[in-house]
Amino acid sequence: MKEQSGRMTVKLLDLAAQYGAIRDEIRGAIDEVLESQQFILGPKVEELERRVASYCGAAHAVGVASGSDAILLALMALGVGAGDEVVTTPYTFFSTASSITRLGAKPVFADIDPRTYNVDPARAAALVGPRTKAVVVVHLFGQTADMDPILAAALARGVPVIEDACQSIGARYKGRPAGSLGTAGCLSFFPSKNLGGLGDGGMVVTSDAALADFIRTLRVHGGRERYYHDVIGINSRLDALQAAALLVKMRHLEEWHEGRRRNAAWYGERLAGIAGVETPHVEAHNVSVFNQYVIRSRDRDALMSFLRESGVGCEVYYPVPLHLQRCFAYLGGRAGDCPEAERAARESLALPVYPELPPAQREHVAARIREFAERRAEGRAR
Ligand SMILES: *Cc1c(COP(=O)(O)O)cnc(C)c1O
Question: Could you tell me which of 64, 72, 182, 262 has the fewest CB atoms within 10 Å of its CB?
Fold first, then answer.
């Protein structure tokens, strides 16, 4: 708990709290790498690849430089290029779509299911057509998308499905882990993810041995043998320092997911029945890892200002759906194309949910939201 001139401050995410609990383990692991002076790929990265593959229910994993590169490399390995269409969601982090456009392909946006913020499976399935080279499904905020209908539609046409599981390592769909559901799963180790490194990092998981092998080649400039290049790859490798820290964090990951779920369940009870506030919906067949705890309010902007003035860290993920981003104007997207994504961009608000969040701070967040709703109700009654 932090008091500033008698006022409580609640951070949206407090990574120092996590580090404080594992400082010695992390430092020991870092020291080991420093002593080895082996910094690029190597045994630590291979060990992490084995651990993450097994955790995600996949046969193979390939460590890369970021989650964005994981998506890019998966698309490259599947041969996505100019003239191809890739069906995806407009309500996600930018790089889900920029990985597609970077290869000269065209993202085709399917609107979302307003209850989960994930792509609406029927809409995504309907957009799979003769030009579709891949589907990139995002498991947003820690919950998997409804994969079965999407997989059925895509696989019937021989179209591979990539899971952007950057926010959802450890999430489950009908008992199956995120990343094992489609052709390949992409993970991010950006510090704010559930499994966050000491900088950028990412991984592709897949049970397709040939695909894994191709991505391994592409991440080292496309050469199987050094200085001989059959294909044009990129430089996108995971550092040993990151792998060492991530191996330490893997040991705590389930307990951290559990802490996030505990906080989410607590909010669910505490915020229930507050007028104008919708708490997140997790499908019965899903287990969420709550990378974000996102509520909805028609008064979102006023609520956000009120919470920030009350010392509560909160954030909008995401204020502009991708079909309306200026850089994608050339794709011809217009307001009204994806009304649910546009409404989510106006109404969603992420609250602090990190595992170490002190109960008194959690209480403060809920109390301020209730206070805001009561003030609004009084204002209307007057
Ligand atoms: C974080 C994130 C990415 C990108 O990961 P980086 O490691 O930051 O490149 C991609 N997609 C989603 C949904 C993300 O949350």
Answer: 262
